[in-house]
Amino acid sequence: xxxxxxxxxxxxxxxxxxxxxxxxxxxxxxxxxxxxxxxxxxxxxxxxxxxxxxxxxxxxxxxxxxxxxxxxxxxxxxxxxxxxxxxxxxxxxxxxxxxxxxxxxxxxxxxxxxxxxxxxxxxxxxxxxxxxxxxxxxxxxxxxxxxxxxxxxxxxxxxxxxxxxxxxxxxxxxxxxxxxxxxxxxxxxxxxxxxxxxxxxxxxxxxxxxxxxxxxxxxxxxxxxxxxxxxxxxxxxxxxxxxxxxxxxxxxxx
Length: 254
Known about the structure:
- This protein is of the alpha+beta class.
- It has two domains: 2-129, Jelly Rolls; 139-242, Homeodomain-like (Arc Repressor Mutant, subunit A), CATH 1.10.10.
- The protein is built from ten helices and nine strands.
- The protein has helices spanning 71-78, 91-105, 112-129, 139-150, 158-165, 169-180, 184-202, 207-214, 219-230, 234-242; strands spanning 2-3, 7-14, 17-24, 27-31, 34-38, 43-46, 50-56, 60-67, 86-88.
- Strands 1-8-3-6-9 form a five-stranded antiparallel sheet, covered by helices on one side.
- Helix 2 packs antiparallel against helix 3 and helix 7 (184-202) crosses helix 10 (234-242).
- It is globular and about 50 Å long.
């Protein structure tokens, strides 16, 4: 789904359950008391017949993964919440959704088996730990997250971040893992890969420069991490997106 200009979508309902992954732009989605502020690579789960409204920014592109038929039984078997809109946290779910988008871009060359496998993994990952604990994120941790997200290419020092937050480095590391399910190092690496994905899909900048701008040691370091994360190389990822520069199949502007 692509919106070329900012718009407000009044309250409406989708019959099927689905995941939504923001690829480009910004938007806010509200359903009852739940609000999700999407930035690129934010993912959320919508139970069947979720009533919601959206405020879309300019040039917003969303990949929607609709789950119908027997997938409702799969969702129920995993014990996934089926009552309200739920933002999904954790890198594993994000990268599984990105890989599903890659398969979608392959069109007729997509593998049904790969899609099915990725969907099972995505549902399982969300059910096992895709939601943050039901307690508020400490203000000091939110400040650390904001600083890291503002420039993931920076060479961070855990002691310095902890000192700025007024906590012990061990407390920062443990609290971060409690809320994110991974280390700060893995979190930063994920942010860097996200930067690379956007650069590959939207620009023709040389891979070596993209690697440097994202904070990787060099192009080979980027390629290794990118392959480990997405199961493909940066060059293949770029070629796949280049083939759809003038519009994705099934995603005409609204």
